[in-house]
Amino acid sequence: CGCEPSVPSSADTPCGGGFVSHVSATNGRVGGSAGLVGGAWQGPRMDKLIVGSEAIAAGVLTRHELRQHYDTVFRDVYLPAGAELTAGVRAKAAYLWAGRQGVICGVSAAALHGNSYISGDRVVELNRQRRNAPKGIVIRGDCLSSDECTMVGDVAVTTPARTIFDIGRRV
To answer: From CA 108, how far away is CA 167, in angstroms rounded?
Structure first.
């Protein structure tokens, strides 16, 4: 099917063709340097989620500050201590855990599309080809066409129509 569900490191597609994202040539992340996801130094774009190794490398936090003031959501992905872990925040954390590669799908995509009734305790559904995942993330291996993917902020997600389809067939 020719589908590689991942966010690109160059101006190509997260879902196999046609969906062009804005990628910085200098850092390879969606949105350019002002729109990076996952750093406390970038404001509230990712609900203050940070990738610990990136924050330490940028000199924004020390390992000690990270241990003292942040809770681990997934390996190397942290949320400020005491912050609410909603379904949408968990989905964004899973996207960061996956190295910004993959597409959030199913009920997790519904949360990012604005459904506030989804419990923050639910597992995150992430569509990607690499199958390994920590507890709390379910990997889906669906082949997505370019018209089934979109961006919500800096996160690749399935479109509302594809999200409904996925939820309906898995119920």
So the answer is: 10
**From CA 71, how far away is CA 23, in angstroms rounded?**
29
Pairing relation of β-strands 137-140 and 124-127? parallel
Nearest-angstrom CA–CA distance, 89 and 111: 9
The HSE-up count of residue 122 (CA atoms within 13 Å, CB side) is 20
- Give residue for tokens 């959030």: 104
Q: Per-residue pLDDT tens, the chain, 171 aa: give them.
A: 334 444 443 333 445 433 323 222 223 333 333 334 454 444 444 568 999 999 999 999 999 999 999 999 999 999 999 999 999 999 999 999 999 999 999 999 999 999 999 999 999 999 998 889 999 999 999 999 999 999 999 999 999 999 999 999 988
Residue 32 DSSP label: T
A 10 A CB-CB count for 45 gives 18
**20, 11 contact by CB (below 8 A):** yes
The strand ranges marked E within the chain are: 50-51, 70-74, 77-80, 103-104, 124-127, 137-140, 149-152, 155-158
